[in-house]
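Continuing the series of single-chain predictions for the mutant panel. This is the parent chain; the variants come on the following pages.
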Amino acid sequence: MIRLLTFSTLYPSAANPEHGIFVETRLRHLLASGAVQSRVIAPVPWFPFRDSRFGEYSRFAATPPREVQHGIDVMHPRFVRLPKIGMTSAPFTLAQGAIGAARQLIRSGYDFDLIDAHYFYPDGVAAVLLGKALRKPVVITARGTDINLIPRHALPRRMILAAARRCAGIITVCAALKDELIALGVDESSVVVLRNGVDLELFGLEDIRAARGAFGISRFALASVGHLIRRKGHDLVIGALTELPDVDAYIAGSGPEEGRLRSLARSLGVADRVHFLGALPQERLSTLYNAVDALVLASSREGWANVLLEAMACGTPVVASNVWGTPEVVAAPEAGVLMRERTAAGMVEAVHRLRAALPARTATRRYAEQFSWDETTHGQLELFAKILRTERSGIPCHA
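Parent structure:
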């Protein structure tokens, strides 16, 4: 039995249940194999006030120090996020905040074999510092902007490359991220691609009439799902509605861009066709996917966007920007179409193209069924076992 320490700031809590749910989902499927145990350390920034006026910071303050989520023991130690220099100091404050919790686990009898870290910066860099202090091998999973955006900054890039040399293994969720790591100077042999899967039981076909009734949908409808931040491209979806007069858009998510997006919808005269739903739990998202005719994802950057497979598993095809790992997901007509250009006009053209050859919902569902979590779980188990065999043979598996 392999004993893991799962380490990431991207992990759900009672105060923020949708945060980093993709990390929890992969871990739950791994635990279901029966071949591993895990405890989770999911640090949160220290903040003194729970007042909701402080937004996400109030949720940090409300996060319990320790909790059990889906039978998994989760610790939330605090770390200091320093103003102005927070980006460069974060790996060090993160490691400092987590080391006590990790040692507490060991003292309690859970002497884990390996640290399974998610998101390369600052989490993966901090995990390597923990691994050095505790003499444990570290595996880091790269997920998206940690590789396709953050390395634009010189100091984080140097720390990412140093962590890549010192960790025992690297996982990327798509081939595009592996290619980018290699381009940055990471040894190709140290990187394994293990794409995210989709929960085919949680996301499935529902009664379409009932699903549409749940959201009051009566005509062709698009869903745009994700944090309301600029790089998700919700504004392109709103802009496209000016040339799609018989289409409504349902936006599921919360974030700092909500005010700007509402203003944009009003200024373009489409506010009556843009429905802001807020952040939805996964069960409600499943119903939304079933209710709409297509999911649209206009992101400028994505590693492996889980929402694409979630929609497909519900029989709903997608329209997506042709970026990073997305072409690896949208790779057949029954999956949907890729935008030829990432603009509102490009969205209009892609929606017209999809509507002209709309795939059967059963065909889209069958396409999604090839992306179960089984292959990913098997790949993780193989990698972890190989690393631990190397460690126990006395041959260092990291620099």
